[in-house]
Amino acid sequence: MFDTICTLPLASDLFAQAIHLTDPILSVGLSSGHVQTYRLPAISDDGEDPDGANDGVGKIVTQWQTRRHKGSCRSLAFSLDGEVLYSTGTDGIVKAASTSTGQVSAKIAVPRDPTIFMDQPSLLHTLSPQVLLVATDSSALHLYDLRDGSTPFSRNQKPQQTYHPHEDYVSSISALPPSQASSTGNSRQFVTTGATTLAVTDVRKGVLAQSEDQEEELLSSAVVTGLPVKSGRSSSEKVVVGGAGGVLMMWNRGQWEDQQERINVGKGMAGVNSLDSITLLPDDIGYFHGKHIGVGVGDGTIKIVGLSPNRVLGTLLHDDVEGVVALGFDASGRLISGGGQNIKIWTPREPAQHRADDGSANGVGSRKRTAEADMDDSEKDDDSIDEEPAKDKKRKRRRRKGKGKATNGGNQPIGFRDID
After folding, report:
1. How far apart are the first and last CA of the chain?
2. How far apart are CA 285 and CA 306, in angstroms?
């Protein structure tokens, strides 16, 4: 299914992970407040590493690292053109930095909730070249205007809109594909999960719909398109949501009142495990047919799940103890999983290799490279950048528990100008 080719150790617990859309670049945000950006081995069109290693098994270069936030770094997001890396942390600041150098170009202070001392940001999402979403512990969801793809905001800039789609902090954000009538091709609507509900919000119209109480905490989400249209379903798009009770729930687009399908993923003889992260598998993985997702589970495994028909196809092992809090594919089709104090990089097996019985456990082959990151454990001023040479990486570590949460509610639609 997949072979793990590298284990990248981290200096402290992973809280956030961002994968560049077009280049082999990975950024991580840690509980210590550090942000680190790595360049992974590139893979050419013929499947070989231009630097001489096959299948992307080469050296990982630390492009830069810095202690970006006081307290922990809670979320990361690249701009859609990949030039800017946004980060936020428990210091209540959102920072925009150059992807290539790490130098900060702009900052904003997240508005405070009057009922609490500081409304700590919990999640970032770049919805379009114009819109950056910033969610907070109080359930506020701020929309900032990034017109012209730049970072014009200043420290005291106010958000253009603020919504409250849930009564608790926003746990995930997934953009809905734009309609055929869109003139820009940019998403204007998005799905969020928070507490026990799912909600749909439009950047101009506000919260459009909220589901019934699902009686289970909703933690992660992804949008799946191109599914076959079946009887009783008017759309080929689904929103897949992972719950704290180990169940994968599915909503058909436009039918937001209640879930329509369920798959048992995290429940087993060993107990119930939360579904903390979800990613869509690329369509070009040869031995998979149809739509599939990867699900990061609280017991340290990754479940490969087929959709239509709905079933669990396989299991990968990220860690024996810590859950998989981040999951995604890079531009070269490699699966990147994060949790605890390590990152793992996986490559899909060739179809013939996948069919062969190689004696491996949990879908993990024997070809494996480890690496040791050259981490800076010294205390540095915020935003100081350390340029690092390429290092061979080794060693694994474990993760402690994650981020704190808070509650609140409300709703106030305003209007974005000139956004389709």
Report:
1. 41
2. 13
β-pairing verdict for 206-210 and 275-280: unpaired
- Helix H or strand E encompassing 93: strand 93-98
Alpha-carbon gap, residue 132 to 77, rounded angstroms = 9
Element (H, E) at 198: strand 197-202
Give me the phi and psi of 42, to 5 degrees please.
-80, 155
Beta strands at 189-194 and 197-202: parallel, antiparallel or unpaired = antiparallel
pLDDT in tens, 28-51: 999 999 999 999 988 765 555 444
- Minimum mean pLDDT range among 197-201, 385-389, 405-409: 405-409
Burial class for 192, CB neighbours closer than 10 Å (0-12, 13-18, 19+): buried
Distance from C-alpha of 411 to C-alpha of 121, rounded to nearest angstrom: 18
- Residues linked to residue 64 through DSSP beta bridges, in sequence order: 37
Whole-structure pTM value: 0.82
The owner of tokens 């949990």 is: 362
- How, if at all, do strands 197-202 and 170-175 pair? unpaired
Residue 131, number of CB atoms within 10 A of its CB: 23
CA distance 136 to 119: 6
Q: Which whole-number Å values give the CA distances from 195 to 141, 142, 172, 245, in the listed order? A: 14, 18, 10, 13
The string of pLDDT tens digits covering residues 288-308 is 678 999 999 999 999 999 997
Per-residue pLDDT, 285 = 74
Rounded (to 5) percent helix, strand, coil in the chain: 0, 45, 55
